[in-house]
Amino acid sequence: MEKIKLKEQTMEFKLNGTTINYEGDPELSLMTYLRDVEEIISPKDGCAPEGVCGCCTVLLDGNVLKACIAPMRRIAGKEVITMEGLDPGKKETVINAFAIEGGLQCGFCTPGIIMKVWPLLNQGFVTEKEINKALNSNLCRCTGYKKVTKSCLSAAEALRNNAKIELPQSSGKVGESLPKYDSLRLATGEAPYVADLKFEGMVHGALKFSDHPRAKVLKIDTSVAEKLDGVFRVFTAEDIPGERFTGLIVPDWPLMLKRGETTRYVGDVLAGIVAETEQIAREAVALIDVEYEVLTPITDPFDALSKNCPQIHKKGNLLSTTEIKRGDSKKAEKESAFVTKGTYTTQRIEHAFLEIECCVAQPLEGGVEVFSQSQEFMKTGAVSVKF
Ligand code: FES
Ligand code: FES
């Protein structure tokens, strides 16, 4: 089968003081290059290629840059500095400030935040307002910004006075207030998250999601994707040998949809690609051709319960009912001066964790070892063994 090749370009640039001769795709993002080719994992992938979270921030000729939206052609002849290329003494002062002030929790955003404020911390005097303005384009979902700003101000003051910030030594006694045990590895970005894991011979997967929230899938043509150089295998629902359905409350969520089935949201998966690199896998996904009969989506929960609404799920559109009883409401009503009745709705809440959803599976003798991000690893294990 004739394979389609990706384009290549030759150029030179500096990375943390070393001259690099790059020969490859000029459109490849700097973040992907750093993470996949150089295996520098301090720039984290929180939203690539959206360019909104700031986790991948690096310095380009001294200016801050979101590496996920910078194509390699933009780097030609310039100098890239990552966390690894910062002055070691100053870096220690900054990460110690974050550790002592509690400026990080999960730490996923922290290397990007430090890179973002680095030029400010080194400019001499910096105000709280300047720090906050700089952090406008860096997201943190767990620490909150007050402690981050405090860490930055403390680091800036120490750098300005050529002073060191030392970590407190533990006496080993219970009750001491100490920095988070892994804060230094988290702050420098050395601590690996799932997307940072690499194994010998690892291949990469990418999924083709539905283009429509509700549509009947008429055809899935993967023939062009299969011809892309570097693609090992294309999977569709027909390739799943075991149980095809999963779900935490009702197990009726298909891992992949078959031709003829109807999607329920844009997160429904139609096919999966396994390729040499993540970039190739994603390029191949874009080459999958799907024909749909597009249907009107149901977007309102109350409409979904009405009699004439199409049934999205076999057992009906009501997923579950939760009744909450606290105290004697009848008695409280009787004793109240005023009683009002109504239907109350709350806003949707997205946890907005910054680490991307992904997993790594490693075949072992007699099984598979799965690395995934979850609070419920036992459940992940139980679900995984079904397929
Ligand atoms: S801004 Fe680059 S990964 Fe989010
Ligand atoms: S510490 Fe900022 S995202 Fe977790």
Automatic annotation (TrEMBL):
SUPFAM superfamilies assigned: 2Fe-2S ferredoxin-like (SSF54292), CO dehydrogenase ISP C-domain like (SSF47741), CO dehydrogenase molybdoprotein N-domain-like (SSF54665), Molybdenum cofactor-binding domain (SSF56003)
GO terms, molecular function: iron ion binding; iron-sulfur cluster binding; oxidoreductase activity
Signal peptide extent: none
Pfam families, per the entry: Ald_Xan_dh_C (PF01315), Fer2_2 (PF01799), MoCoBD_1 (PF02738)
All copies of domain 2Fe-2S ferredoxin-type, residue ranges: 9-86
Coiled coil: none
Stored PROSITE patterns: 2FE2S_FER_2
Family affiliation: Belongs to the xanthine dehydrogenase family.
This protein's name: 2Fe-2S ferredoxin-type domain-containing protein
